[in-house]
Amino acid sequence: MNRRLLVISNGHGEDVIAVKIIQELWKLQKINFSSDSNQEYCPINITALPMVGEGFAYQKIDIPLLGKVQKMPSGGFIYMDGRQLWKDIKSGLVGLTLHQYQQVKQWSREGGLILAVGDILPLLWANLSGVNYFFVGTAKSEYYLRNEEGWLEDVSIVDRFLGSIYYPWERWLMSSKSCLGIFPRDSLTVESLQNYGIRAYDYGNPMMDDVDISFSPVQNPDDEYTLKVLLLPGSRLPEALDNWQLILSAVDSLLEIQDLDLRFVGAIASSLNLNVFAEIAQKFQWKPIQKKSVNIPIEDPDKMILTKNKAQLILSQNSYAQSLQYCDISIAMAGTATEQFVGLGKPAIAFAGTGAQYNPKFAKNQSRLLGISLQLVENPQQVKDKVQELLSNPDLWQSISVNGKKRLGSAGGAKKIARELLSKLTQRSEV
């Protein structure tokens, strides 16, 4: 048997989602093998092509990479700033793209199946490969243009005429006989594509798989009366450090609120240096304290705890899902992490930074995607008023809860997508 799968993704977040699907695929294959004693075990031959970055997510699980990889200055955010595209071109983007296309064509000569994750580029490469493919659409959602009631007010005439967040040429790629299925990120987008006769499946959002988990924190009586605020500065340097300072300015404004007990949790990406974030916090007069002196249900032995004006600030890199589950509200300047938090039915407050990712255009687009679940303000000082507004309006808070869960979709998507892959790979191996 020859089971070959090529996974093409174009972004760090897309790499992570692809890895989740691969891991579920491995689990399902082992379950199927153990339940059928007459079956000869034949591992799936998986190769990955990370179009953006160096594919560290794949390397962590020992997936071989196809061709060469290269980190680009933009980090994949060229659609937010034309200057970033020019930097990438000067760094060899055109040559890298041609190399990747040639590698895909060469891989496809022996047959196999492709899983494309991201936007039109991996979808296009899959289509041009000549083999069958699936597509996980992580980058686009109908919510960018409309909601269940209709078009958003500022949607252009052109977008309304084209009819969908996926343009006609993208829908053409999805309608190919070689395309075995599309897995959009939410139900509204699934419905839109199905209206065009595209095989789109409402399998949920793999992005929510790792965070929508059962979490039973150590009971702390004080938590019931404490507003727990998640701080998300993003993962891209040096932007994350600049964002962190802006977020701490917003935190200072919250500390001015009388009769409000506050606890802050900084969810810092594992790729960053936690000590640097702690040092910046100390410049804002946060003082380190002993871990044992505070009962905080964040299971991270390496967490740091600081205090200021009777409030606590926990910095953690090893309890991401717990941090999202534990907190009530977020001050967010991140991409995927913000969406995951909102997907749990919780409100996020955001303001634009000055970096390549969380700039005004990105923040505006994210607010269109997330609707009322993302409350945009103009500067850190306005966070205080927005928090007070939310606390005084339980009906709005409830609407935000319903909205976020609907827009981000349900968990379990990776396993369902993996089941489709395994089914098709098994069919191909038996031909």
TrEMBL record:
<dbReference type="InterPro" id="IPR019994">
    <property type="entry name" value="Lipid-A-disac_synthase-rel_put"/>
</dbReference>
<protein>
    <recommendedName>
        <fullName>Lipid-A-disaccharide synthase</fullName>
    </recommendedName>
</protein>
